[in-house]
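User: Fold this, then the next.

Assistant: Folding the first:
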Amino acid sequence: MSLNKIYIALGSNISPEENILNAIQLLKRQITISAASTFYSTPPIGSKNQENFINGIIVGETSIPAEKLKFETLRTIESELGRIRSKDKFASRTIDLDILIYGDKVINSKELILPDPEILTRPFLAFALYELTPELILPGYNISIKDIIKKMTPNMMKPLPELSLFILKTLRL
């Protein structure tokens, strides 16, 4: 099986430093991680009566098919770390793992949409992707990440350099 370059978003607002590090350790058992973006503190979307989220992106490679990666690998890690899914998709969570980009694949099914369309609307995703791969062209959209971030302002994002450095050291990158 061939390897696909993947970008996975990580987010948490319940013990976020601990849960993000634990998620990365569990992900390292399944995929090869080659880089991590800066991690940011961001206000919650939807309900404002919750803690800020910490969000960032890892990039790596895998031969695990996209659907299996999402529903078997990522969802299993979320469950192991105590994620409880509810009807409120903006609820607080221990960990949220999402595939943003999977190689050059474009998938538009009921279960999975790739690349993740939230890249176009969420600065914490777009700026982190730009940091990791400034020349990135979103598959299927044929738009550069550079052009996407030109239309955004990162004013609600607070970089967390100490946590980001600790994550890089943990990954030995």
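Now the next one, as you asked:
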Amino acid sequence: MHERLLDAAAAIIREQGHCALSARTIADRLSLKRQIVHYYFETMDELIVQLVRRSSAQAVAVLDSADMRADPLRAIWRMSNDRDQALLALELAALAARRPAVREVVRQAAEATRAAQTRLLTDYLAARGLSATIDPEVATIVLASLSYTMVQEDAVGITAGHEKLRSLVDATLDQFLRTGRGTLPD
């Protein structure tokens, strides 16, 4: 039941935004009584903290998997472009800005994800004897920021320039995979 409640909370946040999250909306989604939410989670902040921790652990586990090592920048790009995960991350960050009890956990989760992304890219370069032309941590921030911006814009129907940006990023990532260097094509 614990996981079902967290799943319902995540779905509500992604679909309706963090402002729609309440014990009532979670219970209604699962056709349960509202009290069951408070049986498993003393407060909504506790539920949100556990949701953040679970999401972060899942992201770090994916980043630490062998599947990510062959083409780490593209893997980070694809992961950041996952609409559901990006919307959840954006909403949780917005929520953290307003709820001090959640803020530190969101910060820790974001930093853990960024550290895993940076480690993945650093290990990739080291295994190939390559030196970075851009700091790996900065590269992960740029990819995630571009992705989150596009996901956020897409959620409200703004798509101008998105395909051009995807093509540019894909070409740069192809070049990085071939050469270990990623420069913007002319």
